[in-house]
Amino acid sequence: MKRIFSFIILLFILSGFLYISNISGRESLPPSYPGHPVSLELPEIKRVVGVVNKGESLFDIFKKEGISLKYLPEVTRASKKLYNLVKLKPMRSYVITTVKEPGSDKEKLSVFKYSINDLEYLKVINHDDRFTALRKPVNYERRYALISGSIENNLIDAIGPTDEHQRLAIELAEIFESEIDFVTELRKGDRFEILVEELWKDNAFKGYGKIKAARFVNNGKTYEAYLYSIDGKQYYFDRKGRSLKKALLRAPLRFKYISSRFSYHRRHPVLKIVRPHLGVDYAAPTGTPVSAAGNGTVVFAGWRGAYGKCVIIRHPNGYKTYYGHLSRIKRGIRKGRKVSQGEIIGYVGSTGLATGPHLDYRVKKNGRFINPLRMKVPRDRPVPRKYMADFIAQITEYQETMARLSSEKEPVLKAELPASN
Q: How far apart are CA 419 and CA 421, in angstroms?
């Protein structure tokens, strides 16, 4: 009887334990919803790639691609300081990315990209209806190339016939413009070597980058140039670290030829009398941009009798430069305006007493006119002493690369540079 009673008590305890466990287990199970799978809706992203047609504006492109015109002023405003989208160039590509949120029937502009040129692109990003613009380099594979040759007729013919070769020739002339006059001083047999970046994408040549180093032998004298960066800006120096940039340019424009030189006894082509011509006449088509020859302050901008439309700039160290017979003066160039070397101040013309379009360029030193083609002006700042060790290491690398490529039978472009980000 005692055993039966003990068995009943044990059975009761065991039943209670199983009951509690069953309840606890049921409460810990997650609810089940058969026939109702979880769904996650993602935004719809659309990407359109196109090319600008001749005469097309950003308005036309947005309308053609179905982009809301409300974004037009935002995109234009955001990019204004980096690139003016008012005038798009034909045959340049663009990419438009839009986003449509779940449950919405409206597409939102997310990103607008425009190919400025083969080296740079503009990217406008919409983040919560706040537009920001970036101007970035195209990510190319970069290789060193050595281009060398000798002068027969002119520099452009010697380097090559393509647009890229012509751009390279102009860049080389601009590097050495304070040392060599490529119109009057070039000699048959002059030699050159150029170390330059080639830009490649998808195994296709896209163009040339910056000239890294150059050597030019003019009338038996050797000139050298090496690109070096200081505080994020790039400059050209000779092997001793002296700047190739001088305080004043001898020719502040791209001209065809010199039509009249500095002289105290020149027969005037219009007046038919002999009188001094205290400047240099650079013949160029009407509308050719004219740049400030150096940093300075505009002291006159307007009409000056026989000199026509004219700009006069005062520079440090007692120099003044004169730019005469302009077709027009650039907007904003007025008395008191500070200008930088290379900044456009006007355009070639034939105003005043002139027989044809040209720039009459004159230079004064301490109140006396001097010959712009023979003037000796100070150089810009040299490489700072603290950077000289790094500068020497950099130009040594350039020299070794030029020597290696020059020794190859065919200067194939093997030395590679890291791609820009």
A: 7
